[in-house]
Input
Amino acid sequence: MPAAIRTDHLFKIYPGADGPAVDGLSLSVEEGRFYGLLGPNGAGKTTTLSILCGLLNADSGEAEVMGHSLPQHIDHVKPLLGVVPQDIALYDTLTARENLVFFGAMYGMKGKTLTQRATELLEEFGLTEKADKAVRTYSGGMKRRVNLMVGLLHGPRILFLDEPTVGIDVQSRAMINAYLQKLNANGTTIIYTSHHMDEAERLCDGIGIIDRGRLIVEGSPKELLSANTDCNSLEDIFLKLTGKQLRD
Output
């Protein structure tokens, strides 16, 4: 399969920082993968995703999405991407339906196509009854579901997920993860970051662990466990490679 995303010696340093956020990162993820990009706080995960989404420019190196170079061809890339940020990116005075219609219009969707798609997603994520209530009245799990729905509206070929299930109830997490597995099975490439190692081990068919902006190991969960026989889980491998020192 062709690469959905590719980076080659990607480098990014923020003004005033002690070191680079991304330090020569070379990565290739095939189309159709459910790929977990894992690392401690400050490892460079969000910066990498921001470069691949066109929100940041790298200082040097190359980045491609579906064969399109960034940032030169960002206009070709944007329609291919769905982005679900870690922070809730919704208007809390609007209803879920109104948020979906607003963001759908930004994707260029309109009319019956947009209203039908919004209705489908509200039903899929169990929010039909609450669809016309202000988002500020929602629980954390409900807000997370709407946050994800916004990124899915236009049927992206690649979905970037930055901590999509952080701080939510078990039922909402199970619903979101089941939907993501179905989405991936239907061909959507998913690039996923999380601190839930058990979740990543269960969902992802490929794992890349990065630290201090560098890729330190890559493989399927099974391959990583086979190569680290002293570890019983992906979390054990993660701590072995990145250490137990707190990263605030």
